[in-house]
Amino acid sequence: MSHVRLTNVVIASWPRGWERGARLCSGVRVGADLARGTEAGVVSLVKPLSSLTTFRRSMASLSEQEKILTGENVYSNLQRMEYAVRGPLLIRALEIEKELQRGVKKPFTEVIKANVGDAHAMGQKPITFLRQVLALTVTPELLDDPRYPEDAKNRARAILGGCKGGSVGSYSESAGIELIRKHVAQYIQERDGIPCDYQNVILSGGASDGIKSVLKLFNEKINGKPSGVLIPIPQYPLYSATLAEFGLAQVGYYLNEENKWSLDISELERALAEGKKTSNPRVLVVINPGNPTGQVLTRSNIEDIIRFAHKHRLFLLADEVYQDNIYDKESSFHAVKKVMMEMGAPYSKMELASFMSISKGYMGECGIRGGYSEIVNMDPAVMAILLKSISAMLCPTVLGQVAMDVVTNPPKPNEPSYKQFIEEKNATLQSLAERSRLVVDTLNSIPGFKANPAMGAMYVFPQFELPAKAIEAAKAEGKSPDVFYAFKLLEATGICVIAGSGFGQKPGTYHFRTTILPQKDKIKTMLNSLKEFHIQFLKEYS
Amino acid sequence: MSHVRLTNVVIASWPRGWERGARLCSGVRVGADLARGTEAGVVSLVKPLSSLTTFRRSMASLSEQEKILTGENVYSNLQRMEYAVRGPLLIRALEIEKELQRGVKKPFTEVIKANVGDAHAMGQKPITFLRQVLALTVTPELLDDPRYPEDAKNRARAILGGCKGGSVGSYSESAGIELIRKHVAQYIQERDGIPCDYQNVILSGGASDGIKSVLKLFNEKINGKPSGVLIPIPQYPLYSATLAEFGLAQVGYYLNEENKWSLDISELERALAEGKKTSNPRVLVVINPGNPTGQVLTRSNIEDIIRFAHKHRLFLLADEVYQDNIYDKESSFHAVKKVMMEMGAPYSKMELASFMSISKGYMGECGIRGGYSEIVNMDPAVMAILLKSISAMLCPTVLGQVAMDVVTNPPKPNEPSYKQFIEEKNATLQSLAERSRLVVDTLNSIPGFKANPAMGAMYVFPQFELPAKAIEAAKAEGKSPDVFYAFKLLEATGICVIAGSGFGQKPGTYHFRTTILPQKDKIKTMLNSLKEFHIQFLKEYS
């Protein structure tokens, strides 16, 4: 057989696999286990078919048995998991972007991705000092360049000294470069006034990575029941997705929307009692400042939460990635560890993991992927297993670690880069605070909208009323009403928000999450466009 | 209560958790489920205790029940998993490094980490062009710098054009930046002469990440039995670790050491029959070039493997991260995909995932973390689930993607950086080839050592004989003989290799894996030192 002929055979047979996808989206057959949400995912994978005839012909020759791995026998936990922030709405938004590029006429000129806390994507500028240190570690020849300030060079030299062979291209220890772990520990210690041992600090490729590593430890069934994890509702969907993936039980507690999304202990008690029916509740997740809700917990609220966790023997998991993002002048950030330690024994002995990221705050370096976990009071036998479990992945990206070094070891007042660093940091945080107020105020001026103030974080999660006719129309399309609304908004305005059902909400209420990240002019346009859309929507469905 | 007093309370109670670790390493109590290997891990976590009295006093006040998460109830799959490349030997090597730093006298002055394929750590220089493109994407102001070549600038401009907001600090799509996926597809297509659709390419934070994502899909028990995954023995321990973590069944097939570690189909048949007793074998892993064995599969061998996989309905998983590392002049790299496609139907319709990394080859950018998976003929419903499953982790590091872009879209002959790029690439590969021969020849000159030629990859996996007395001494210490040997070697010479039992070996045979990565002078010193050690060892235990 000649080479050419073989290649031809390949080309002839190769696109068949794709065509099976078309069955899913054109409704010929939808796998029983395929969640509705994933259909859109399939759509994006499918190549356009030239004609339905071709499509039907190829179907006839293809039996289900041909594939080893199918929608029916794939890991069911992954079938079940959903991650709304990157779900069907975003997939459609990306398609619309391509349609715009192809010149398809739309009532708008660009898609505004308010779905994800992605600051640089929305025009936020990187922190100069952070990028300088990164560039110096990537190309150490720049250490001779007089245009780079000495403090950036000193940081880079110290980090390279901690890299094997003096290169960011060598693996670090799995828990991260020791020097950077020490800087993180020093940062936490100064933040809290409480000792922090660098050996409790594990660097990771983003906070999500750290959170998953810790939740994985609980993946053991005890007396046939899975571990239960208490998470706020609304929650950040990393939690629901990870619990589904690991087969852990999600035990939701509602935040109190009527009281600025505060956390009520009585609701924790209710949720725990409910969770005990089907699981062994072992973990309590607190997101502070809140995502998607933007609430900032008071110190006394955190004390109550700690007492509750102690009483019920819950491992505390504190998602504190928005600790720099506090906009409400009455509020401040209280680390769960600090509060727990200051409460003294027995609370100071409780097990806790807290998480931080380079993706949020004032730096917004999402794409670089960096984070840390601080693991407090963990059984050393478990800590050894945690360290072992991350070792097969070798190490988190060293450049993410470098960025985390800058975040935890920023320029000091006597250093040359201090002034610019502080100006950039403050300007970003100041602007985020202004935009958070702008978003909340504008949303509250729309008929039927009610938004709590964004005390912190990067999102607003307004509640809005939907007319009965819209709810009926959504049902007719097999969509939940908030998802129906979000799709309509996207198609009409190019604004991509995430429907509340992706985060969880009380039954019968409708929300979406929008970021406050588009730059000032764009966010004004976006809000006006949203307002107009909503008024039009109400007319259409009233 | 005053703040100061509370802080004191904390300090008094805080180190207790650590002291429990001391129980584990001082032998007071070792958790039944704690694998022996992890003890050393615990040692490294423990702070030195001021006195045993303090230690015993604190023990009395601490009951097992205090911890929520313990060595007994932690996820048992993680308890079981081992990753020898970063196990107790490396932990001890890192301790020895610290002892040397503290001035502890040793018969050597430095630890040589021949345990891991970490080229830059061993003095290999980064590829200039790759680092230039990285620096330009990190600090786009450098795009105006005349010292950077135009082709590097063009790459950087194109990549930044594919980043949202023009910043590597924004999230990419979960499967990676479209432009870079297209470059990867183009690279594969040119390599194989077979079409490659960029939508089949998923970028990842290193190949390990991609491999785990695909293996996870098989994590469904069918008729109560786990999926079986055929892996070579010896194997790269990512596989044994991942299978243990996911609860998949490891079905080992032995490579034929007598015939240059070749892969015999009769052995595959034997292993499969064995595997069927306890699992549903669904996946066949091929590592080519081999890790730790360095074998390069012939084309006809690959054809046989493909026929075997087709006959038994096995999903092919091709770990091809060493595709650039071929040293044997008689051998060349044949991608499983290319062979499968050229064989025509029905083989060309088989499901396959193949993996590549920026950590190996001539670039050795381990710390940056970049890799890709090419997913061929996957059921679109499964592909949608795979994409969904990686979305909760948001995206692989964008800078790892940038490095992968350079690897798959290197300077072209007419571009200004071409000459230097090719010189650097060839010099590195040439030097690796020389060192591979040096290592093999020297090992074969040691009494009782037998090493196959390293046809490719970055390792040699010699077999060596151990005297009966050494085997007894190992048993007395509760170590397997090869681990005993590797520890002795480490303590005597500072050379850190990984014992063969971490990779798997035929019972009664002893091996270790060493990299060929130390630079030429250092590798000579290392080999001499190893030879002297072995002769001394034989004397001591004869």
Strand order of the largest sheet of chain A: 2-8-7-6-5-3-4
The stretches of 5 or more residues of chain A where confidence is low (pLDDT under 50) are 1-64
- Largest sheet report of chain A: 7 strands, mixed
DSSP strand content of chain A: 5-15%
Number of helices of chain A: 20
What's the mean pLDDT score of chain A? 88
**End-to-end C-alpha gap of chain A:** 69 Å
Q: Give the number of DSSP strands of chain A.
A: 14
* CATH architecture level-2 label of the largest domain in chain A: 3-Layer(aba) Sandwich
Portion of residues in helices of chain A? Answer: 40-55%
Give the tally of structural domains of chain A.
3
Note the overall shape of chain A: globular
CATH superfamily of the largest domain in chain A: Type I PLP-dependent aspartate aminotransferase-like (Major domain)
Structural class of chain A: alpha/beta
The CATH topology label of the largest domain in chain A is Aspartate Aminotransferase, domain 2
